[in-house]
Input
Amino acid sequence: MNEITINLPNVVMPICSEVKMLKGQKALVTGANSGIGKGVVLELAKAGADVVINYRGGEQAALELVEQVKKCGVNVFAFQADVSNENEVKAMFEKTFKEFGTIDILVNNAGLQKDAPIDEMTLEQWNTVINVNLTGQFLCAREAVKEFKRRGVIADISCSAGKIIHISSVHEVIPWAGHVNYAASKGGVMLMMKSIAQEVAPFRIRVNSISPGAIRTPINTSAWETKEAYDDLMKLIPYKRIGEVDDIGRAAAWLASDYADYINGTSIYIDGGMTLYPGFATGG
Ligand code: BGC
Output
């Protein structure tokens, strides 16, 4: 079978899209000053949403992103909070309500990896990953749902009372040796997302996940920065290119919009086919 080795160009979208499908909506994105979070912020802002940029470290990057987002003509501010800390999460939502009045979209993105073989993994590595990737998403989802239920549907803004997008991973279904804490956290996100979706659907609240494959971000530099690593990575990706943060951002903006109003309780895999068991393309 012939392998396609050319790097095809990605879709290039205008800086501030003409389609303001999120006009008047208020969004909060966690872990938003770099990587996928940053890509999501930019696409939500292009679609007309006001945005809160949550970050934990890297204040400078957050402030630079605030300036970039302002060019889309939307309201934006940055807020420092550790999503695994209940009081900091509550303070972040209070500030959001003070500045924006309410919230329509939560993108639960903050996440990290602390990799180690199982027999060397410390309890701290385990706890840190579960606390940020899973408990952090729970804490933010809880505050968002409270507000969605309190406020209900405002028909001029959206036909839904609120949207939560969990940023999960292909590793919610693909086991990952050497990363058991991370895979466990994302497997947890999958059933947490579906259970919340089932619970709050009658309130017209939509809850879904985006599950990225390999996206070019600081979390996985070692998987793409050298030619050898990149070529190895391509063995896992039938579509033969790495993902870019705007691949995720564009999907998030659409999923948060009324164009996706009947989508609820689903994981959308954005992975160039990584979940298609690429080893079986020629074997089995
Ligand atoms: C991980 C990345 C990895 C990708 C595909 C993501 O969830 O954070 O490090 O490259 O999954 O394996």
